[in-house]
Each structure stands twice: as C-alpha cells, then as structure tokens.
Amino acid sequence: MYVEERMYRLRPGKVDEYFHHYETHGMPVQLKYLPHMLGYYATEVGVQNLIVHMWAYDDLNQRERCRAALFADPEWQAYRPKIHPLMLHMETRIMKCAPFFLERLKTMLSATMT
Q1: 70, 30 contact by CB (below 8 A)
Q2: 48, HSE (Cβ side, Cα atoms, 13 Å)
Q3: CATH classification of 2-112 is 2.60.40.1180, yes or no?
Q4: How far is CA 90 from CA 5, 8, 51, 104, 112, in A?
Q5: Residue 66 φ/ψ, nearest 5 degrees
Q6: What pLDDT score does 26 carry?
Q7: Cα 47 from chain centre
Q8: The pLDDT of residue 39 is above 60
Q9: Contact, 11 vs 48, CB < 8 A?
Q10: How confident is the model at residue 112, as a pLDDT?
Q11: How many angstroms separate the Cα of 77 from the Cα of each of 1, 45, 82?
C-alpha cells in the first residue's frame, strides 16, 4: 500500500480562499475518483501557508488509473484554474507503507468506509 503526500505552498493569506475553492469545487470531484483521503491540513506551526493532503492507494497502478480518470473529468479541469494562481510551490511524495503498519492502515481505511 502507498500513501501520496501532496504539499502546496500558497501565496500569503490565501489558505481560506484555497479551502473554499477546494471544498466547493475540488473535493466533490476528487472523491469520485481517489479511493482514500487520509487527511487535509493547513500548517499551524512551521512553514506558513502550507496545505498538506494525503491519499492512500493499493498500488501505484491504482494511483495512475485514478488520477487519469480525475484529470479526464471536465469538472476537475474547470476547478484547477481557480487554485493555480493561489499556489507558489507544489511537491509530492509517494511513500510505501511499512510492513508493520500495513494492517493498521487497512483497518483505519475500512473504518472510514462505513
């Protein structure tokens, strides 16, 4: 199992605007295609104006299929120009789940699906 961590550094003072666009336009589309949202955060301490969100995938092929379907959706394409002007930097990490944490992560994910 893999976890994707995405970090967006926004222009100062733009976190609330970004969250508004995401909650209203981005999240409804994204949740149709991406299987497991693990969290969506804004930093409180440390680097400011940083959005961090994480997604779980069974494997990298699933991630590729899900993201291809998402990017093919016209609603997603209409959403992206709303947030890109708010961003200064984007970074993505793909992490492989530690063997001893795999069952715990699967349990956590199954609890969110009920």
Answers
A1: yes
A2: 5
A3: no
A4: 11, 5, 10, 29, 27
A5: -65, -45
A6: 95
A7: 18
A8: yes
A9: no
A10: 66
A11: 28, 32, 10
